[in-house]
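Hi support team,

I'm filing this because I wasn't sure whether my run with nicotinamide-adenine-dinucleotide finished correctly. The job status page said complete, but I'd like someone to confirm that the output block is well-formed before I use it downstream. Pasting the exact inputs I used:
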Amino acid sequence: MKPLQIAMLGAGNRGRDAYGSYALQHPHEIDVVAVAETGPERRQLFADEHNIPRVRCFESAEQLLQQPRMCDAVFICTGDRDHFATAMGAIENGYHVFLEKPMAVDPAQCLAIAEAAEAAGVTLVIAHVLRYAPLFQHIHRLLERGAIGRLVTMQHNENVGYYHFAHSYVRGNWRREDQSSPILLAKSCHDMDLLYWFAGAPCEAVSSFGSLIHFKAQNAPPGHTERCLDGCPHFHTCPFSVERVYLSREYRWPATVITPDPSPEARIRALRSGMYGRCVYACDNDVADNQVVSLQFSNGVTASFTLCGFTHDISRTLKLMGTEGEIRAHLERNEIELHSFREDSVHAIVPGNSTGAHGGGDWGIMRSFVTALRCGDGSRVVSARESAEGHLIALAADEARQLGEVVSMPQFLKQFGAAT
Ligand SMILES: NC(=O)c1ccc[n+]([C@@H]2O[C@H](COP(=O)([O-])OP(=O)(O)OC[C@H]3O[C@@H](n4cnc5c(N)ncnc54)[C@H](O)[C@@H]3O)[C@@H](O)[C@H]2O)c1
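And here is everything the job wrote out:
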């Protein structure tokens, strides 16, 4: 069977490191035949890695989409606010689409993408990679076979990690709502998707609290400088200093984001001039650094979710409580504990292969997307309409936080002419 031919739109961290690297390691499954990337250095690097000829290298996604269709599918891995227009353009051109989350930053646009893909008869998959991680798939199977009786409630923690938070949500691309989206959508639409999937019923109502507590000017230590490398007296002691986040660690994410050149000189150059060199107390960030959400599903299941920037590890930890047992899980350790009340027992489970980031979800979704298209089996992937639900829950929860009210999902959806 011929490999799936794709074009990569946006060859940054996700396009190059997550999906491009899968393609390089699975050439019999997937062949990247074109790239659109605004950064000349990244574009060239990606083209060299995938042997893409110059005529198939484009300066922007828009430019690539103006050409006649050149392959089976496009991967949209550009910034959050470009996703809607790019996805609609790709659908119009007849491409199958792999679209990074969030699919769009506004509820009506999320629904419009799902509708357009259905009308055009193309497969459009949202990169809700967690659904494809062996650990979460195993938990879903346990729930389906009633391993903990009837599911009653769930507790889910998204532990962002203090240096990840400083990199992405204080200094980086997702620091401002007007340039990306509320953090709950940007970071946790796939966590809302998981809770919805596990609950097995539509979400009825949400409430939420949270704010930007720490990363603001009034919390700066005395004598700090605007950039860490400008002789800041806290350079070696501040947990968020560029030394700790980008220089003293080996060259891997997040240092790969600041420069494709691994040398210390290149990193220092990038930090002297670029946005990642700023003091975390002197940035223009406004997204919340902590947020809690309560969810009520239509079958009576409830859930609580906590997103927090002040954690040591980058991890997701869950507890699902049922009438006959309990599931405890840790994504990054790839561990599940199944407690049975009937047997008064605890079973430790190590789910399948978790190679690739997000507990194996990045590679899991790639495998499913490629197989769905090569075998014409759409059941291998989650539909865009189903994936829109997690986005709508995140957006409704953020509205609840801003209003300080419980938001009814049916009322929220009515504003956009959508049914529950
Ligand atoms: N699924 C997940 O778990 C997950 C994780 C992290 C990020 N994301 C999402 O993936 C997307 C990409 O994130 P990233 O971390 O790779 O960001 P990034 O900044 O590393 O990469 C984005 C790339 O797109 C390029 N670009 C921007 N506009 C373009 C355009 N019009 N045409 C062509 N190229 C363009 C940029 O130059 C950059 O190289 C974001 O929407 C982000 O929210 C998803």
